[in-house]
Amino acid sequence: MLSDDDIRSGMEAFLERRDPGVRAATMGVGNDDLESGRRYLDGAAAGGWAVPSWPRELGGRDASADESRAIKRVQREFSVPDLYVYAVGLAMVGPTLLAHGSEQQQGQWMPSIANGSEIWCQMFSEPEAGSDLANVAMRAERDGDEWILDGQKVWTSRGMWATWGLVLARTDPEVPKHNGLSMFAIRMDSPGVEVRPLVQMNSDKHFSEVFVSGARIPDSYRIGNLGLGWNVAVTVLAHERAAAGGGGGGGGVKKRKGAAPTPPSWLAALLPSGRFEDPLWRQRATKAYSFDQAAAWTNGRAAASRQPGPAGSGAKLRSTRQYRDRATISLDSLGPEAMLTDNEHSLTFLTSPSMAIRGGTDEIQRNIVGERVLGLPSEPRVDRDVPWSRSRKGLL
Question: Is the pTM of this model over 0.90?
């Protein structure tokens, strides 16, 4: 078992100590920086520090669950860059390949994810398949040892930067919608693939719409069994929700044993505003901080199991509230200045509504918690046994 000092020694080889007073950028807000994350991942690759639970030959260090948690805890003491650009590969594609990919696929794609040399995007949502993801219409038709893809995806995060896309496509329209899907990887520079960035209200262009017309990929890029793409998608989504909720801790450096307690960085940044003199505002801020702590403990308990599940939906709901509360409180601390758009909190505030949509809407997460955690009756699904070719428009 690695000691904390062993981990610090490894981290110091490629990372600087974190200044607790500096708020780190998160979720790529207002930032198109690829290089800082790539340098970090490249430096971490030799020791497998970025993805410690992965096998050594695939870019990790074969760390146990306890060792992985210790590495993550100590890592908070260091200035780790925002890895938003690389998060799809690190948090979703890599773990999914471990669960469903062949040895050849794992060896081909995972090391380049771990060292940051290749970026992945997730091509799931479509204009008529958002919350009802199983309604995807992108077609994949077999032609010998190749597949020909046609269709459109939308809200594809990181599409503008990605080398590879993880794409859910329909391979059999004559069976119920969940049964006729398969999962593929596709190079984003393939002939027939066009990426069009979408401008968000915070001015970021991190979402894209992707048009695919006659793009050809080999069958070796199919991940999992033919027609079982929904099972692969569920794995991806479970890891996505666990990752989205996993960042909802205290928001600051975890203090060493015996050290004086310090407020998290987002709360410490508000101290100069003088708003803490107002007891109602102080109560509002400390209520948000208390929720942060409860979320961190709950997420830590859920993380004891290395298999993501419905607990990730609860974590995602909590992280949405945390992000929104911090953004609103931080903006409100400015008083009248908050009406301006050139303050440090406006970008975060304008980003906060998207947190309830990205990674699966809050409504879908509540359905999952209700059905799979609380045991409530499932919503009626009249198209469960109907071929997708008949049910796709909701007309039975």
Answer: no
Nearest to 96 by CA among 247, 248, 228, 194: 228
Active-site option among 77, 194, 240, 363? 240
Please check the confidence at residue 390 and state whether its pLDDT lies above 50: yes
Q: Give pLDDT tens digits for 75-109.
A: 989 999 999 999 999 999 999 999 999 999 999 99
Are 164 and 212 part of one and the same domain?
yes
Nearest CA among 55, 63, 64, 70 for reference residue 3? 70
| C-alpha to C-alpha distance for 137 and 391, rounded to whole angstroms | 12
Q: Whole domain around residue 319: which residue ranges?
A: 247-254+262-360
Q: How many domains does the chain have?
A: 3
Q: 118 catalytic, yes or no?
A: no
CB atoms within 10 A of CB 97: 27
Is there a single domain that holds both residue 224 and residue 266?
no
Binned at pLDDT 50, 70 and 90, residue 269 comes out as confident
Task: Please check whether residue 122 is in contact with residue 355, taking contact to mean a CB–CB distance below 8 angstroms.
Answer: no
Shared-domain flag, residues 218 and 303: no
Mean pLDDT of the chain: 88
Domain match, 353 and 282 both: yes
